[in-house]
Amino acid sequence: MDGRAIVNESTDTSGDPAADALVIAGAGLAGARAAEAVRAGGYAGRLVLIGQEAAAPYIRPPLSKEYLAGRADRDSVDVHPIGWYSEHGIERIGGHRAAVLDRAGHRVTLDDGRTLRYSRLLLATGASPRPFPGPGASLPGVHYLRTVEDSERLRARLAEGGRRVVIIGSGWIGLEVAATAKGYGNDVILLGRGAVPLQRVLGAEVGGVFERLHRDHGVHVGNNTEVVELEGETRSGGTRVTGVRLSDRTLVRADLVVVGLGSTPNTQLALGSGLAVDDGIAVSATFATGDPDVFAVGDVANVYHPRLGHRLRVEHWANADAAGAAAGRAMLGDTTEYDAIPYFYTDQFDLSMEYSGFGDLAVDAQVVFRGDRLGREFLVFWLAAGQVVAGMNVNVWDVNATVQRLIRSGVRVDPRRLADESIAVEDLLTSPQG
User: N or C: which end of the chain has fewer CB within 10 A?
Assistant: First the structure.
C-alpha cells in the first residue's frame, strides 16, 4: 500500500482522544504549513489535520507543469515526507472533510459523523475548479485539474500523443496545460474569452507576449471566443466528448477537453456556521474571523491587506506557503499583520517567469518594459501614480527580491530610468529620480 494513503494516524500527544485540540480543516499546503508552525511555536497539545483527500498534503503547481509532463516523481510534490506527521505528533485524518461547524459548542463534525472538540480552529479548505457552465460538463473525456489524481488521469491521455486537445480558458492553468500537452505531441487548441490570454491579470501588452509564445510553438489560440456546449458521441467504447460548440455555432472537434475556468473558494463550512463570507471567508490581517477561536487561510480566505486597505484573496502557492505558517502562529496568539506581496511563477515552453505585485493596483497602470521583449528576456513593471505596484521578470533571474523591495518601498520612479538597462534595478531604490 502506498504510504500516502495512510489515514487516521493517531498521534495524540495529550493522552485524551476527547481533549480539545487545535484543529486544522484542510490539508493542502496552507494547512500543512500551519501545522508545522504550530509545532515550531512550542505547542505540545493535540493537533489534528483534516484533509478531504486521502493523500498527505502536497503542492499543486507541478500538477500542471513538471508532474503533468512526467519530469517529476510523486514524492517530489509532497510537502513533507510521509512519516513527518507522526514524528511531529500531528494526528492526520485523511479522506474525510469537516462537514458541520458548531461554533457555540466548539465542535467540528466530519462527513462520517465523528465529532472533534477544538480550542481553536483554522479553516484551510481551499478552492474547487469552476465547472463548465453549459451542457456536457460531465462527459467522459472532460478534464479538470486540481488534485494529483486529476493530473495523473490527464497525463495518461496526453502522453499518448497525437490527440486533439481543446482547452477552455486561457489563464495560467490553461496555458501551462497547453504547453505540456504540446510537448507530448498533441494538436492543441486554446480558447479564451479575452482579446489575448491573461488579459484580465496582465493586460493586453503582456498577455500578447504569452499569445505569441504559444503561437510560435504551434498552439492554435482562439481569442474572443465563448464555448456554450460540450458535445459527445456514442461509439463502441461508450459515450465521450467529441467537440466543443462555440457561441457562433462553430463546432471544434476534440479528442479530450480540459476546462480551466478558475476556481471558487470552498466556503460551505463557514457559511453554514454563520461566518462572514465575501469572495472567500472574510478575515483580518491576522487571519481572524468574527469568532475569536476560528481563523482562515489559503485559497478560501479573503484577507485584509494593510498596504491595500482592503481584503485580498490570493490563490497562488506562495501565499499558501507563507500565509499558512503565519496563520499557524496566529492560532498561538501572534498578532503580526500579514502583508506579503503576492508572488507566482510559471514555466511554459522556453519561457520562465516570476511575478510579484498587486493586480488590482496594476489595472490601467503604465506598463514599462526593460530588455529584449521579442526575445522573451526582459523585465516589465506596472507603474501607478509613479510607483511600481507590480513587476515581472521573464527569463531573467536573481532580480525578483529586488522587484519586491521596489514595490514595498513606494518610491516614485521615472519610467525612463526604469526602462534603462544601464541603470541597475537596485539603484532605483536609492536614487529613483536620478
Answer: N
Q: Which residue has the cell 471566443?
A: 225
C-alpha dihedral (154, 159, 162, 165), degrees to nearest 10: 20
What residue spans of 279-371 are helical by DSSP H?
317-331, 359-362
Which residues constitute the domain of residue 36? 3-128+264-331
- Per-residue pLDDT at 325 exceeds 80: yes
| Distance from C-alpha of 325 to C-alpha of 331, rounded to nearest angstrom | 10
Q: Is 115 within 8 Å of 108 (Cβ atoms)?
A: yes
- Listed residue (143, 197, 191) closest to 167, CA to CA: 191
Averaged pLDDT for residues 72-89:
96
> For the whole model, what pTM was predicted?
0.93
Confidence band of 19 (pLDDT split at 50, 70, 90): low
Are 80 and 224 in the same domain?
no
Q: Convert the pLDDT of each residue in 268-283 to its tens digit.
A: 999 999 999 999 999 9
Residue 236: per-residue pLDDT: 76
End-to-end CA, the chain: 64
